[in-house]
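Sample 1 of the test manifest.
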Amino acid sequence: MANPLDTVFAALADPTRRAILAMLLEDDMAVTDVAEPFEMSLAAISKHLTILTRAGLIAQEKRGRVKWCKLQPDAMKDASVWMQGFGQFEPVNLDAFERFLKSELGSEPHSPES
Amino acid sequence: MANPLDTVFAALADPTRRAILAMLLEDDMAVTDVAEPFEMSLAAISKHLTILTRAGLIAQEKRGRVKWCKLQPDAMKDASVWMQGFGQFEPVNLDAFERFLKSELGSEPHSPES
DNA sequence: AGCATATTCAACCAAATGGTTGACGATGCG
DNA sequence: CGCATCGTCAACCATTTGGTTGAATATGCT
């Protein structure tokens, strides 16, 4: 999976990881805090974060004993351009996006803010 | 993997499948013709097409003994909106997209037009 | 020093993925 | 009818994925 599009799309294919990205849209977070809303082990979340990091979608910076996770949305750019090439999808509709996030967060198996 | 975003992103995570979609951008194609440029069995391509179909990214219609594959770009819409919510990526740049397609097609392990 | 907190590592497991091959059903053609 | 072509199915295989648990490392606090 050398191709960056492979890793980005694969990273986005998991609902837990998409939920994490959505959480990071609000603010940078420590690993423990990212994990808190999910019903799975910290180790599992740590693995998800590694995948997101390798895809370039987040950056992790260790300050003291806590590792901060920061969204890196530019990593989605190429993937976004790739997809847009197929459809000329209407320009970003932020309302749609927010409804989207809400519905996704609300219905995931391991969702935060249930 | 009930969530449509899961299946769409997962489908797009494979370079062979992205290459197939790019080919279908040109024109509808029969399964055998889709498979021709790839260095893998017809059965393997058939599986990829099933995955693309289940993701809604293509539709397959059987006419006579040949099954035609048709791109269904609307299936990317939600995923595209989801991603755009993160970055406000610049409006579609078709030139970028074409360069992109070319470079991807040209460097894949099992690429068409080698 | 000694303990608590933050995070990862290692080993393990079940299930999914991406590929193969060979047989098979369905359709078209001479 | 008999044969070739189109495409899928079934069984198999190796690898990856997403999770677990328990131990280990690193930092901070008193």
